[in-house]
Amino acid sequence: MDVVDIFSYAWGGIKLRKLRAALTTLGIVIGIAAIVALLSLGEGFRIVITSQFERGFALDVLTVTAGRGLLANIITGSGSEEYLALNDTYTMNEIAGVRQATATLSKSIGISQGNKTYMVTAVGINFTEYSTIYSTSFQLEDGSMSLNPANDSIILGYRLHDPWKNGTILFNVGDYINLTWTTGSITKPIVKRYTFHVVGVLKEIGGISIFGPSDIQAYIPITTAQKIFETDQVSQIQVQLVSSEQETIDSVTNSIKNIYGDKVTVISPSAMLNTFSSILSTVQLLLAGLAGISLLVAGIGIMNIMIVSVIERTREIGILKSLGMKNKTVMTIFLCEAALIGLVGAAIGIVFGLGLSNFVTNFVFPLISTGTSQPNGQGNRVISNIVPVLTPTVCVGAFFFGIATSVLFALYPAWRASKLKPVEALRYE
Amino acid sequence: MAPVVQTINLHKTYMLGKVPVNALRGVDLEIESGDFVAIVGPSGSGKSTLLNLIGALDRPTEGKVIIDGVDVSTLNDDELAELRRRIGFVFQFFNLIPRLTASENVELPLAIAGVKKRQRKEKTSELLKAVGLSERAGHNPTELSGGEQQRVAIARALANEPRFLLLDEPTGNIDSKTADMLILLLRKLNEERGVTIIMITHDLNIAKQAKRIVRILDGRIIEETSNIAT
Ligand SMILES: Nc1ncnc2c1ncn2[C@@H]1O[C@H](COP(=O)(O)OP(=O)(O)OP(=O)(O)O)[C@@H](O)[C@H]1O
Ligand SMILES: [Mg+2]
User: Fold this and answer.
1) Closest Cα to atom 12, ligand 1: which residue?
2) In chain B, what are the domain boundaries?
3) Which of A108, A230, A391, A424 sits between 20 and 30 A of B7, alpha carbons compared?
4) Model confidence pLDDT, tens digit, residues A279-311
């Protein structure tokens, strides 16, 4: 029996039980749709996140922190014994390949207006050095920046000035604002306060910032920061390189490591991006795996239906065998039925999956992001920018995965059909 | 001339739970090409069992079935399937495939044997014409009378030009008038086309139309008679 005949015979078998076939197909549709939706949303998410990071990133700036890195500090449960100080920038400036090093000191603070308090990060910087290193993003929209700023100068990120982008101004140049923060222990917190004078507002940067300037930070002179936060440490040292080539990144990283040993961690933006990208991929795979469970259920459904179908068609199988059909042809017919169901299910599932992900980005995500419009709501911008992306690999992969699942779960019923004894099958009522 | 079918000391024992049922207890039978044999005997005497063994649908417990000089017991499942393509089966309950039309049912064994589509169509319409059902080609079995269904089954059985036709009570489910016409058709096929026919029947009048009658009782052949005057 040739392939065309086998397929048309299998198709006849499906047509015989339309509703049953439709319901079985629905299982595959749901499974594949879930996988496609999650993967295309995940891919869209990854693209948005990566591009947002790239906007905030300066690829030629290394970030040096004390200790073995943030994660290690969390695991060991202690802050690092080691710390970096202002004069470490001098050491780093000496290293070949370094154009300019500058120190920053960050602290979570509250800015109050009326009865509302916004939690933001205050970053102590050297205005001159910082603005040269991040010359593309640290640009003033309004106000002016003195090379020798007064101690109470503060420069605001754009979203602290115009958080909703509709002209409802939160703080403006010339305003005096109160920064509050707590010291002391958790049980006995002491609230401290300092008044700053807004001297500038940054242009909108966009994106999410881990290192480097951001729309939701406030910048104060580092000397003031060290004084009011009562420390001689700095949080990070940003090291701008003469180029963003990997060679330079590696050589400067090595030089810093040679000088400081394990006392510091050097993070390069490109390495961060790679790590981040691979974490996202893993998460995506995990999601796809979860969606795969629904496909597993669909597969079991197919197996169940096929077993019933084989039992119902025992006599037919007996007839086919009495007419000289070989066991493997009987098996192929049942596998073809499953493959056809898988094929139709996968094709519809891909379309549905795309539809579903578009529905989510167009109708569900806007609901989430309008609900929580806050000046510090970075996530909202990410969510509202997601466009589902279906890569050809995912598309083709999902298609064949759908077919493969149905065929795989049909193997056992099809095998049972092929092994029926002709006489017994013919006697079956 | 070597017989088309030969059985040697054929035994078949079914196990009903732990109780053995001896359906056949040593059957020796030879059927020549062009023969028309009627197998008669009371219910449960082992007629169907014998026919299934001759048709390579089942394997004997003991003894041999030799078809065209080949010992069937030496064949594997695939070879048996290929052998069955050269044997035409007709069953009491027609056993047509309900979702296929009359002509598709007739075409099926040709498709299974790998005959090309165009040849299949030709052969199918020729066969339906031979059994007088050209007009009913596009009908499903449910739309046909018992006699018509049985004629479709005969056309299907003849599709691959079988070495012999095996019919298990072909008239068991149709009225006597239709049955007479069916036997007429079989005789015509036997006389004009030289088709070898082996047929089980309860009806002695029908058996008399055959060239030879084999009588079976309790799994053994007890009598063989030749009808000279037909
Ligand atoms: N698959 C089976 N399992 C157990 N016993 C069987 C099986 N097939 C047939 N038998 C038994 O073998 C014996 C012969 O059966 P068979 O069907 O060959 O008789 P038959 O002559 O065709 O009868 P009928 O005229 O009623 O069709 C019977 O006793 C029957 O019960
Ligand atoms: Mg019988």
Assistant:
1) B23
2) 96-162
3) A424
4) 888 888 888 888 888 889 889 999 999 999 999
